[in-house]
Amino acid sequence: MNKKNFIYFIGCFLLAIIAEVTLFTETIGISLSIFVVVFYVFYFYLTRKQTHTHRLIGIYIFVCIWLLTLSFVFIGNPYFYPLNLLVVFILIGFHTVLITSPAFLHWSNIDAFLYIQKKVSSFFKLGKYLTFLVRKSVKRRANERDYVAMKRILLGIVIVMPILIILIFLLSMSDQHFSTMVETIITWLVSFKVDEISTLIRIGFIFVFLLLLMKTISKKSIIIPKERKVKQGRWEQATLLTILLSINGLYIFYTVIQFQYFFNDVLINGFTYATYARRGFFELIIVTVINISIILLVNRFAKNRTLFLKIVLSSLIVFSFIILLSAHLRLSLYEQAYGYTYLRLFSHSFIIFLAVFFSFTLIKIWVEKLQLIRFFLLLSLLYYCGLNVMDIDRLIVSKNLQRFDETNLIDFSYIDALSYSTIPVLVDYYESNPEMKSVKHLLLAKKELLQQKKQKWQSYNIVEDRARKLLGKIDFDKKISENQNVKNNN
Q1: CA-wise closest residue to 318 among 237, 252, 238
Q2: Which residues of the chain carry a pLDDT beneath 50?
Q3: 292-301 and 307-338 are packed helices; what angle lies between their axes, rounded to 10 degrees?
Q4: Is residue 167 part of a domain?
Q5: pLDDT in the model for residue 261
Q6: Any transmembrane segments, and where (predicted)?
Q7: Is residue 332 part of a domain?
Q8: Which of 24, 91, 121, 379 gives the lowest tally of CB atoms within 10 Å of its CB?
Q9: Cα–Cα distance between 450 and 446 in angstroms, integer?
Q10: What is residue 333's predicted lDDT score, i.e. its pLDDT?
C-alpha cells in the first residue's frame, strides 16, 4: 500500500471514530461543529490538487451549512434539530460534489443534477466492487467446497431469521412461561457486551461509507452537456390576454371588497377569529399555487411578450401583494385574540417569503434574462436558514407576555413546552413581577430539569448553559419576601 492510500484509509478510519464519538454517543450539540470541521479538513486535503469550481455558490452553501451547524450551539430549539441534521448532510453532499464538478456545469441546470446522479451511481458501483473484492478474498483464502457451504449457510440464516422472529412472537403470545424464558435469553444475549459490539459495527459501517464517499467525490466524472433547443411559445396573445384580464377583473372585485375592512380591527359578517384567519391562509395558498403558476406558464408558452402582456402580468403581481396583505392582517387579528405560536409566526414568515419571491417575479417579467428557478432555490435556502437564526421561542414568549400585560390572557402550558432560550425573557419578567406564581413555578420546573440533566461535552449548547447560570443565581423565596416588604412599606 502506497503512502497516498495509507493516508486515505487512516483518515477515513479516524473520521469514522470521530463520527461515532460526536454524532452517536450523546445528544448533538457542539459535537456536530467538530465533526464538520474535521470532515472538511480531510476533504480539502484529499481534493487539494483538484480545481475547485463554482466558488460563489459554493461559498453561499458553505455559509448556510455553518449557520445550520452552529444552530446546535447558539440556538436552543430542539424542534429544528432533526430536520437541520438532515439538511446539513444533504448540503454537505451537494457542496462537496458541486465544487469539484466541471466549471461549465451551471449549478441550477439539469446537467448539474445529472452529474450528481452520476456520482450517486458511481458510489453504488464502488460499493458493489468492494463487495466483490471481499468475496474474492474470502474465496481465495478458503477452498471451493468450504466457500460454497458457507454461502449456503448464510443464505439459510437470512431466509430463516424473519420466520423465527414471527414464530417466537406468536408462541410467546400463547404461553406466558415460554415468553418469560425467551425474554431472559434475549436479555442475556443483549447484555453480552452489546454496546461495544454495536459501536464497532457502527464504526465499521461509517468507515466503509466514508471510503466510498471520499473515493466517489475525489474521482473525476465525465459528463457531456446536452444541447437543448429553445422551444418557441405556442400560446397566442388573444388567448393569454382573455385569461389574464378575466382573472385580474376578479381580483379587482375582490380588492374592492377587501378595502372595506382593511383598516378595521373588528370582524364583520359574524365571522369568528378562527374562520377569519383560516380564510386568510387559504388566500395565501391560492396566491402561491394559482398566480405563480399562471405567471410561469405565460412566461414559458407565450409566443410574444408584448408591453401590454407584461403590464397585465404585473397587475396580477400587484393584486397578489394585496391578497398577501389581507392574509397578514387577518393573521395578526387572530394572534391578538389567541396569542402567538410557532404555526402563526411561521405563517407570517411565509408571507414575507412569498412577497420577496413575487417582487423578483415582477422584475423577471420585465427583465427576461433573469433565472427564476435559481433565485427560488437560493431564497428557499436563505429562508430556512433565517428561521433557524431567528430566536423564535424567545420571540413567542416576548409577544405573549406583552399580550398578557394588555389582556391578562396567556397559555403558560404552551410556553412551558418551549426551549431554554425563553429563560432570559422569563427571568427578566419574573424579576419585575415576582408575585407571578405561574412564572415562578415554570422557572422552578426548568431549573429542576437542568439540575437533573447531566450534560456531556458533545451536547454543549450556549443557550442551555446560560439558562442554567441564570436560574442558579435567582433566590425565588428571597424575591417574594422582598416584594412583600415593598408592598407593606407602601
Answers
A1: 252
A2: 192, 263, 265, 486-488, 490
A3: 160
A4: no
A5: 55
A6: 7-24, 30-46, 58-80, 86-105, 153-173, 197-217, 238-261, 281-298, 307-329, 341-360, 372-390
A7: yes
A8: 121
A9: 6
A10: 76
Please identify which residue in the block is written with the cell numbers 427576461: 368
- Polymer length of the chain: 490
CA separation for the pair 250, 239 (Å, rounded)? 17
Q: Are 294 and 244 in contact (CB under 8 A)?
A: yes
Residues 266 and 385 grouped into a single domain: yes
Q: Is residue 312 within 8 Å of residue 247, measured between CB atoms?
A: no
Q: What angle do CA 426, 427, 429 make, to 5 degrees?
A: 65
Q: Do 308 and 411 have their domain in common?
A: no
Quick one: CA dihedral 365, 371, 373, 374, positive or negative?
negative
Sequence-distant (6+) residues with CB within 8 A of 308 are 241
**Residue range(s) defining the domain that contains residue 278:** 237-390
Last residue of one domain, picked from the residues 390, 409, 432: 390
How confident is the model at residue 95, as a pLDDT? Answer: 93
Contact criterion met (CB below 8 Å) for 461 and 417: no
Give the single-character DSSP code of 99.
T
365-401 burial, b at 16+ Cβ within 10 Å, e below that, comes to beeeeeebeebeeeeebbebbebbeebbbbebbbbbb
Cell of 93: 453532499
Residue 154, domain member (yes or no): no
Let me know whether 192 and 86 are in one domain: yes
CA distance 130 to 208: 9
Residues 110 and 201 both lie in one domain: yes
Q: What is the DSSP letter of 91?
A: H
Asked if residue 444 is part of any domain, the answer here is: yes
Q: Is 379 helix (H, G, I), strand (E, B) or coil?
A: helix
The pLDDT value given to residue 365: 85
326 and 258 in contact (C-beta within 8 Å)? yes
Virtual torsion, Cα 13, 15, 21, 27, nearest 10 deg: -140
Q: What distance separates the 2 farthest-apart alpha carbons in the chain?
A: 98
Kindly tell me the burial class for residue 320, based on how many C-beta atoms sit within 10 Å of its own C-beta (0-12, 13-18, 19 or more): buried
Sign for the pseudo-dihedral over CA of 160, 162, 167, 172? positive
Question: In angstroms, rounded to a whole number, what is the distance separating the alpha carbons of residues 160 and 153?
Answer: 10
**What gap in Å lies between CA 5 and CA 7, rounded to an integer?**
5
Q: 3-class SS at 453? A: coil
Distance (Å, rounded) from C-alpha 437 to C-alpha 391? 26
Give the three-state DSSP class for 63: helix
With contact defined as beta carbons under 8 Å apart, do 396 and 349 qualify? no
Helix segments in 339-436, DSSP class H: 342-366, 372-389, 392-407, 412-416, 423-432
